[in-house]
Design goal:
This protein is mainly alpha-helical and 335 residues long. It has two domains: 205 residues, HUPs (Rossmann fold), CATH 3.40.50; 89 residues, Tyrosyl-Transfer RNA Synthetase (Orthogonal Bundle). It contains 13 helices and five strands. Strands 1-2-3 form a three-stranded parallel β-sheet. Strands 4-5 form a two-stranded parallel ribbon. Strand 1, helix 1 and strand 2 form a beta-alpha-beta unit. Helix 10 packs across helix 12. The structure holds tryptophanyl-5'AMP (TYM). The site of tryptophanyl-5'AMP has 24 residues, from strand 1, helix 1 and helix 7.
C-alpha cells in the first residue's frame, strides 16, 4: 500500500461492540468506501474503545475479527487503504495519555455521549468512558488526518480533537494537522426501528430496533415489517415527531436507492405502509447481499485475515511512531 503525496489523509474507526448495524453502514462505512480513492485512507477497528463497557473476552476477540472482515467485505481495499486493529498499535494508548494532559475536565464532562452512556450504565461509569474522547483524539492526530468521516453522533468528539490539537500546537508550535469531520447528507443519523426518536444503536436490548449488516433476508423483512410508524397511512416526510418512523424509513430507502424524498412520496402515493416497508426491506436486502457473501468468504479463511491485519499493524505503527516521537520530543521526554 502506497500513499500519494498529492492526496489528503482520511481516517475513521468503528468500535467492535455488538453487531454492526445499518446505521453504521449508511452513516459511516459506506461513505468510507466511496471516499477511499480520493484520499490516503486509514481505517481501524477501535477495540481499545470497546472495553469501556464489559465484554466477554471471547466475544470481544470474535467481534474484533468480524469487524475487520466487515471492513474488507464492504469494499475497503487493503491495497488502497491502511486497515488495522487499534490495540495492535501501542502508540494510540501512549498519545492518548499525553493528550489527556491537554484536555480539560470541563470539556470532557460536556460530551453528550459520555452523559448518555453514564445514564445508561450508572454502575459502570469508569474513567475510560470519561477519557474516551482523548483516545479518539490520539487515533486521529497520530496519522495527521485531514478529514474524519463520521455519523452525526461523533461530530462533537471530532470538534474536541480540533480544540485539543489547536491547544497543543499553540503551546509547542505546529505539531498536529487540524482535522475536519465529514458528515453524510443522507443517513448521518439512522434511527431505531422501534423508537424512531433514538439513534439505531448496536447495543440496543431490543433486537427489532436495529438491522444488522449480517442479518439474513427473512430477519430483515420481519424487522422492517415490525418497524414503528404512525396511523396516517401516508408516505411523506413530515416535521412532527409522529412522522419520525416514516421519516427514518424514507431516509434508509433514499440512502440505499438514491431516490429523493419527492420521488419516494410519488412512488408510494395511494399505497399503504405494508407495501412501503416491504420495498425498504427488499432494497436493504439487495444492498447487503454482496457484503454478506464476501464476509462469509473472508471468515472462512482466518489465516489470511490474520496476515492482513498484522501487515496493517506494521504500516500503521510506522506512521504513528513518527508523530509520537515528535510529540515526545516537544513535550520534553528524553530520547
Ligand atoms: P461507533 O463504533 O459507535 O460507530 C461507527 C460509525 O458509525 C456511525 N454511526 C451511525 N451513523 C448513522 N446512524 C446511526 N444510527 C449510527 N450509529 C453509529 C458513527 O457516527 C461512526 O462514524 N468513537 C467512535 C469510533 C472511533 C473513531 C475514532 C471514529 C474511535 N476512534 C477516530 C473516528 C475517528 C465510535 O464509537 O463509533
Amino acid at each position: 500500500m502506497e500513499f500519494s503525496q498529492d492526496k489528503k489523509t482520511m481516517l475513521s474507526m468503528i468500535k467492535p461492540t455488538g453487531h454492526f448495524t445499518l446505521g453504521n453502514y449508511l452513516g459511516a462505512l459506506r461513505n468510507w468506501v466511496k471516499l477511499q480513492d480520493e484520499y490516503n485512507s486509514i481505517f481501524a477497528v477501535a477495540d481499545l474503545h470497546a472495553i469501556t463497557i464489559r465484554l466477554e473476552p471471547k466475544a470481544l476477540r470474535q467481534q474484533t475479527l468480524q469487524a475487520y472482515a466487515i471492513l474488507n467485505a464492504i469494499g475497503l481495499d487493503p491495497k488502497k487503504s491502511l486497515m488495522f486493529i487499534q490495540s495492535t498499535v501501542p502508540a494510540h494508548a501512549e498519545l492518548s495519555w499525553i493528550l489527556s494532559c491537554y484536555s480539560m475536565y470541563g470539556e470532557m464532562q460536556r460530551m453528550t455521549q459520555f452523559k448518555d452512556k453514564s445514564k445508561k450504565a450508572p454502575d459502570n461509569v469508569n474513567l475510560g468512558l470519561f477519557s474516551y474522547p482523548s483516545l479518539m483524539n490520539a487515533d486521529i492526530l497520530l496519522y495527521q488526518a485531514d478529514v474524519v468521516p463520521v455519523g452525526i453522533d461523533q461530530k462533537q468528539h471530532v470538534e474536541l480533537t480540533r480544540t485539543v490539537a489547536n491547544r497543543f500546537n499553540g503551546i509547542y508550535g505546529e505539531t498536529f494537522k487540524i482535522p475536519e469531520p465529514i458528515i453524510p447528507k443522507v443517513g448521518a443519523k439512522i434511527m431505531s426501528l422501534q423508537n424512531p426518536l433514538e439513534k439505531m444503536g448496536k447495543s440496543d436490548s431490543n433486537e427489532n430496533a436495529y438491522i444488522r449488516i449480517l442479518d439474513d433476508p427473512d430477519t430483515i423483512v420481519r424487522k422492517f415489517k415490525r418497524a414503528v410508524t404512525d396511523s396516517q397511512a401516508r408516505v411523506y416526510f413530515g416535521d412532527s415527531s409522529e412522522k419520525a418512523g416514516i421519516n427514518n424509513l424514507m431516509t434508509i430507502y433514499s440512502a440505499v436507492t438514491k431516490k429523493s424524498f419527492e420521488e419516494i412520496e410519488k412512488e408510494f402515493d395511494g399505497k399503504g405502509y405494508g407495501d412501503f416497508k416491504l420495498a425498504v426491506a427488499e432494497a436493504v436486502v439487495e444492498e447487503l447481499k454482496p457484503v454478506q457473501e464476501r464476509y462469509n468468504e473472508l471468515m472462512s479463511d482466518k489465516a489470511t485475515l490474520e496476515k492482513m491485519y498484522q501487515e496493517g499493524a506494521q504500516e500503521a505503527a510506522y506512521i504513528a511512531r513518527k508523530t509520537l516521537s515528535k510529540v515526545k520530543r516537544k513535550v520534553g521526554f528524553v530520547k
